């Protein structure tokens, strides 16, 4: 999709620090990390959010990418996966993404 920053990252038109990549998904470090480890997992195809008709195969590829991030970053103590969806959740980039957060005690403020 034109003017979508994450489509441009997926196409390597905008640089990012890639943690994992395959033909369907890419995982990269968040520009503004909220934890010692903060990566984003996105499908290379553009979907606005998790409810935008994302194929099961793509969701499975994203779950695999989360596992790859966890291994690459050594998150043996645990981690949190978040997907902000819509205005109430504060979604700012309208390309489906999963945050993978870890590397510290993440607290219990939200779920
Ligand atoms: P949201 O608030 O939509 O769930 O999260 C969007 C995330 O994308 C934010 O954590 C933000 O820091 C990250 N982000 C926005 N633009 C860029 C970018 O150009 N590169 C990278 N690596 N992360 C970005
Ligand atoms: Zn996009």
From TrEMBL:
Write out the catalytic residues in the record.
Answer: 97
Question: Per its record, what are the GO molecular function terms?
Answer: catalytic activity
Motif location (Histidine triad motif)? 95-99
Q: Which CDD domains match?
A: PKCI_related
Domain HIT per the UniProt entry, residue ranges: 5-111
The record ties this protein, via PROSITE patterns, to: HIT_1, HIT_2
Checking InterPro entries in the record gives:
Histidine_triad_CS, Histidine_triad_HIT, HIT-like, HIT-like_sf
Highest taxon listed in the record's lineage:
Bacteria
| A Pfam family that the UniProt record links to this protein | HIT
UniProt-recorded name of the protein: Histidine triad nucleotide-binding protein
């Amino acid at each position: 999709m034109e003017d979508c920053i994450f489509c441009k990252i997926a196409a390597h038109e905008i640089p990012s620090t890639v943690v994992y990549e395959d033909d369907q998904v890419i995982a990269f470090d968040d520009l503004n990390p909220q934890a010692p480890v903060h990566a984003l997992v996105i499908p290379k195809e553009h979907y606005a959010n998790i409810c935008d008709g994302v194929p099961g195969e793509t969701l499975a590829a994203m779950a695999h990418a989360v596992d790859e991030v966890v291994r690459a970053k050594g998150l043996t103590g645990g981690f949190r996966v978040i997907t902000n969806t819509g205005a109430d959740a504060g979604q700012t980039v309208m390309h489906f993404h999963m945050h993978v957060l870890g590397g510290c005690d993440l607290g219990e403020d939200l779920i």
